[in-house]
């Protein structure tokens, strides 16, 4: 092959040249642009062509020889290995057409019809983002450095999760939420979304009926779609799940397999299910013989009173699955959550997790375990509870002063977000404008399973400062004033 017959090289001088030249040769061989048996230019010619040292070229040829792409014959030179299969040069257009016709799974095709939530970048007022600037970074880094030096954490552990973390979670939930469980009933997950997906895989079959709060958490709606479920929209009363509706509408609930609820701080509307209604809901679920997933969302952040005890601890039945996450309490990219499972579900859930993702990151589990055991977790929650209360009061006050004629504030003295009711105004277009201008937030109508009964915005206030809250209210006044 003459040096002029080589395809043009495209080298980036800021990156390692040897790796780039090697990658280019391998690509040409695989694409059929260098055919088996082709004689390569000499190393001297290649070094002059590429303006690199001859040693670099020789190193590339040696690597290609070791990988079986090139054969060198004494006195004759280097050749593309003659025994390689003949490859037709790739036509990108034809190739893309051929592969675009390959069928996807039914689940993948279903995703095209779903409104799957895509995480926004971290902006002020994005729901679910805590006050990242208030995170105790110095303490966290100290614990991280200590655990990073532990040889044991470099290996494998149990798929169910790191035992010291499971024990710490069990102790914390027993004291703070009245949950009845020991460490053997806890499964560590890669965030709340994996917990929901595992629940769908283990508890549901295709076509099963699932009862879901409406409006409700979109992540749960998406997770249950894995099983092509029939999702029945259960309305709210006083911003929490309507237990009376469940009791009165047996035809809608007949043969339901699972109910998902956020009773301590309904997402997104913020209501708190009363103790009496919790007992009624537990009795109803037992009578109907269905699984009940209790997502204890935002239970740590009630400002004016202590939250009602978890439903899981209020029943002797073994059909309640309790769910929690560290992502909203500490920081989102942590991606660690947990399930408190009835004993008969521990083995199948753990086996499912071993197949889906394997064990969760061991180092992070160890750091969180120490963070809890040394008391930092409880102190952080106390500080954030006071901080979020001040932000909530300030945000609500600014809205009431500026937007009282245009919106209704739905605030339930808890959590990290606040809901505004636009009274029928188009929320998706306003949401789009705000997001483009750097304000987070989600359109309320997007949380409904069926036709939206309300429009508005869901604003997270935890990761905001006073100036940002002032600016958002001013911008909302402009948008809603037209």
Automatic annotation (TrEMBL):
UniProtKB keywords: Aminotransferase, DNA-binding, Pyridoxal phosphate, Transcription, Transcription regulation, Transferase
InterPro entries assigned to the protein according to its UniProt record, in alphabetical order: Aminotransferase_I/II_large, HTH_trans_reg/aminotransferase, PyrdxlP-dep_Trfase, PyrdxlP-dep_Trfase_major, Tscrpt_reg_HTH_GntR, WH-like_DNA-bd_sf, WH_DNA-bd_sf
Pfam family, one: Aminotran_1_2
GO MF annotations in UniProt: DNA binding; DNA-binding transcription factor activity; pyridoxal phosphate binding; transaminase activity
Membrane-crossing residue ranges in chain numbering: none
Domain HTH gntR-type: 15-83
Family per record: In the C-terminal section; belongs to the class-I pyridoxal-phosphate-dependent aminotransferase family.
PANTHER family per record: HTH-TYPE TRANSCRIPTIONAL REGULATORY PROTEIN GABR (PTHR46577)
Name the record gives this protein: PLP-dependent aminotransferase family protein
Organism of origin: Reinekea thalattae
């Amino acid at each position: 092959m003459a040096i002029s017959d080589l395809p043009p090289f495209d080298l980036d001088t800021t990156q390692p040249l040897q790796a780039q030249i090697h990658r280019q040769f391998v690509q040409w061989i695989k694409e059929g642009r260098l055919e088996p048996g082709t004689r390569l230019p000499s190393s001297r010619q290649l070094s002059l062509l590429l303006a690199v040292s001859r040693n670099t070229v020789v190193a590339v040829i040696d690597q290609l020889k070791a990988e079986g792409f090139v054969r060198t014959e004494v006195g004759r030179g280097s050749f593309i290995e003659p025994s390689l299969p003949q490859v037709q040069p790739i036509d990108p257009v034809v190739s893309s057409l051929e592969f675009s016709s390959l069928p996807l799974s039914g689940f993948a095709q279903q995703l095209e019809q779903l409104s799957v939530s895509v995480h926004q970048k971290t902006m002020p007022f994005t729901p679910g983002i805590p006050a990242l600037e208030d995170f105790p970074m110095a303490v966290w880094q100290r614990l991280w450095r200590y655990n990073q030096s532990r040889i044991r954490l470099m290996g494998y552990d149990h798929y169910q999760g790191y035992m010291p973390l499971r024990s710490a979670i069990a102790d914390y939930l027993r004291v703070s939420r009245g949950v009845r469980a020991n460490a053997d009933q806890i499964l560590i997950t890669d965030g709340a979304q994996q917990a929901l997906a595992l629940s769908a895989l283990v508890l549901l079959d295709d076509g099963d009926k699932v009862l879901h709060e409406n409006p409700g958490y979109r992540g749960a709606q998406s997770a249950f779609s894995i099983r092509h479920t029939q999702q029945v929209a259960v309305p709210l009363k006083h911003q929490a799940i309507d237990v009376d509706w469940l009791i009165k509408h047996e035809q809608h609930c007949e043969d339901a397999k699972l109910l998902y609820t956020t009773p301590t701080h309904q997402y997104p509307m913020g209501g708190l299910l009363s103790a009496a209604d919790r007992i009624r809901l537990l009795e109803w679920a037992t009578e109907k013989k269905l699984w009940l997933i209790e997502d204890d969302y935002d239970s740590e952040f009630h400002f004016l009173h202590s939250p009602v005890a978890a439903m899981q601890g209020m029943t002797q039945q073994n059909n309640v699955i309790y769910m929690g996450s560290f992502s909203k309490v500490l920081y989102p990219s942590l991606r660690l959550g947990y399930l408190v499972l009835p004993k008969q579900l521990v083995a199948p859930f753990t086996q499912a997790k071993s197949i889906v993702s394997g064990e969760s990151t061991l180092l992070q589990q160890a750091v969180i375990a120490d963070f809890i055991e040394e008391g930092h977790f409880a102190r952080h929650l106390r500080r954030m509870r006071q901080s979020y209360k001040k932000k909530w009061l300030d945000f609500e006050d600014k809205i009431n002063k500026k937007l009282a004629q245009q919106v209704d504030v739905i605030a339930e003295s808890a959590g990290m977000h606040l809901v505004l009711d636009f009274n029928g105004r188009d929320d998706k277009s306003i949401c789009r404008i705000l997001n483009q201008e750097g304000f987070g937030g989600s359109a309320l109508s997007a949380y409904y399973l069926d036709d939206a009964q309300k429009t508005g915005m869901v604003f997270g206030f935890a990761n905001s400062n006073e100036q940002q809250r002032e600016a958002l209210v001013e911008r909302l006044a402009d948008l809603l004033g037209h």
